[in-house]
Amino acid sequence: VERAPATPPKPKAAAPAPKPAPPAAKPAPSPVLKDAAPAQPKQAPPAAATPATDAVRADPRLGQALLPDMQAGAKLDAPEGLAEGYRGIVVLTLPENLAARLKEEAKKLGLEAEAANAELQVLLKGDGYEITPSTTLTAPLVAGQAPRFTWSVAEATEAAGALTAEVRALLKGRGKPQTVDLAAIAAAQPAASAAAEKKPLFERPAWATRANFILFGPLVLILIAIFFLARWLSGRRARTARRARQEREKPMDLGGS
After folding, report:
1. Which of 164, 146, 180 is nearest to 65 (CA)?
2. How far is CA 226 from CA 212, 220, 222, 239, in A?
3. Average pLDDT taken over every residue of the chain
4. What is the pLDDT of residues 41-85, one digit of tens each?
C-alpha cells in the first residue's frame, strides 16, 4: 500500500514590523532681538558713608572762625505740628559759601591741602523725639552749593527741649582725616499764627478764676445788697424828716371854726 506523501505545513505569516515613531519636532528657535542690550544684574544702592573712626581733631581755631558764618546762614526748620504729636520733615540748610569760607580760613592756619577735600557730618538730636534716620548723615562739601539735610521727625514722648543739629566738617585732603566742630544749630521756633497774635479786646484778670468766683461771689452779692438797703433806708429817713419839717412849718389856724 503506497502512502500518500505528507502535505508540508503552511508557513505562518510573519507579524508586521512596527511602524517607526514619527521624528520629534524641533523646538522653535527663540526670537533674537536685534540691537538689544544684554540684561545687567541689579545692584544694591550704595550704603551711606560712615564717619571716619581714625580722624583727629583739627585746629579749633578753624571752627571758631567759621562759627559766625554758621550762626548767620545756617537754619534748622521744624514744622509747627511736631509739638502736637504729628510727624513732619525737618530741614537743615547751611550757608552756600561754606566751602569757600572753609578753604579761606584753613589756608590761614596752614591747612589748605587738608581742606582741599572735605565733607560734612550732621547729627540731629532731641529728647523726646523719634528721628529717622537717627545716625550721622554725611555729604560732600561742594563750592557754590548750599548743603541741605532732611529728617523725618515725630514727638514720641513729651519733648524736653528743642531739636539741635550738630554740624562737623571732615578734612580728607592730605594725611589723616581731621574733624572740625562747626556749630550746633537749634530749631527755629514756629511762627505764631495770626489768630494767636490777635489779642482779645478784653483780657480776664489773673484773679478772676472760677474758684475765686465761687468763694467770694456770695460775699460780693451780700455787700451789694447791704449797699442798696442802706441807700433805701437813708432815703426813707430823709423823706420822713422832710415831712416832719413840713408839718412843723404849716401855719396854725388861730380863728377856730
Report:
1. 180
2. 21, 10, 6, 20
3. 76
4. 333 333 344 445 578 998 999 999 999 999 999 999 988 777 667
Peptide bond into 23 cis (omega under 30): no
Q: Which residue has the cell 513729651?
A: 158
